[in-house]
């Protein structure tokens, strides 16, 4: 069996970007595998009217190769929709459109293999390659592997048991559209979470429920806060900032990340405005809408009885506790990076780790392996602790994919600019500024 140059596990936007940029590279043998039957992007949150939080230029290829046939603009041209898009004057496209664009691109890439789950990645010393065990198919050999395992819904501990109970109307926002009709019919609904998903779910329920009564939005953050969207602020999502962050000592990085929450956990200003508009309309004629919007509150317990759920709340700044009743809960509480341990098996124990037991990831997204393993394992969206807040951002997808391709090929396949931001991050080695 001839080894592939690069095998990918998972086909989300990041590995799909890698496949798209690898497609025209002569002599580069690539295959990517995903257990799902087709490309899908957060299907449970494709709420009508929601858009990407990044411009359409953050597609699979454009920020590295705007001439690619797999660009978003070429997708529009292929669908005969360029003129409607031109007149729409959109910079942020609907999420449902991005989802369709991803399927359009994956259908044109022979390297993307769906319906094939990789269950293990091991090092085969005799072949000097990684052996990928693929469920229901022959093993695959590859000199290099890239892991794009995506993220998993994160649910607060008090609610985890109930999310797994099919009889309880408690769910993560990832499943919102699947359960929307039941939520609309429920007497009281509590949305938990202060980010974009929580805001969008709350807004959709506010607009669609026959009455606003019984709708509650709780957030642990001190305020319902907008996402940082100033032009110089956004330069923290550039490769320049990634390089700066990667070069900082580990304890400094760990201290910085929680303070940067508004860069990736805040809410779009337009969404906040739309929520306020809906609430304002409900105050016409006098009186306040029977809706609760309360930041600074954490769910510390959840008990079920014949009348629904009793949620124990704790206000961090007041130090007060209270109990509220609800028929349903939507946990819009984000996602956690998927662990590589199960997939890598014994190989996971041979990875270099930092002081927190997390994998060491080099600037070119390579895991640290023993010298006797001559191949490389790269990661996509599993390196926030080493590369910063830009790890899950679609705007850096093409850059990261191109970096990995350059590393695998051992040459500059894609020219990447030396500077990408007006801001200078950190002091230079010399005194001259």
Description of the molecule:
- This protein is of the alpha/beta class and 433 residues long.
- It contains 14 helices and 18 strands.
- It has helices at 13-22, 72-78, 82-88, 95-107, 157-163, 176-185, 196-208, 239-246, 250-259, 261-264, 269-281, 341-344, 384-387, 397-409; strands at 6-9, 30-34, 112-114, 118-124, 129-134, 140-142, 144-147, 151-153, 170-172, 189-192, 215-218, 291-294, 297-305, 308-315, 320-326, 328-331, 335-337, 376-379.
- The protein has a five-stranded parallel β-sheet with strand order 3-2-1-7-18, covered by helices on one side. It has a five-stranded parallel β-sheet with strand order 9-16-10-11-12.
- Helix 1 crosses helix 14 (397-409).
- The longest helix is centred in the first third of the chain and has 13 residues, at 95-107.
Main features:
single chain; 433 residues; 5-stranded parallel beta sheet; alpha/beta; 14 helices
Largest sheet: 5 strands, parallel
- Anisotropy-based shape: globular
pLDDT < 50 runs, ≥5 residues: none
Q: What is the mean pLDDT?
A: 95
Which value, in Å, is the CA radius of gyration?
23 Å
The helix content, as a percent range, equals 25-40%
Please write out the topology.
Layout: E1 6-9, H1 13-22, E2 30-34, H2 72-78, H3 82-88, H4 95-107, E3 112-114, E4 118-124, E5 129-134, E6 140-142, E7 144-147, E8 151-153, H5 157-163, E9 170-172, H6 176-185, E10 189-192, H7 196-208, E11 215-218, H8 239-246, H9 250-259, H10 261-264, H11 269-281, E12 291-294, E13 297-305, E14 308-315, E15 320-326, E16 328-331, E17 335-337, H12 341-344, E18 376-379, H13 384-387, H14 397-409
Parallel strand pairs: 1-2, 1-7, 2-3, 7-18, 9-16, 10-11, 10-16, 11-12
Antiparallel strand pairs: 4-5, 5-6, 8-17, 13-14, 14-15
Helix pairs in contact: 1-14, 7-11
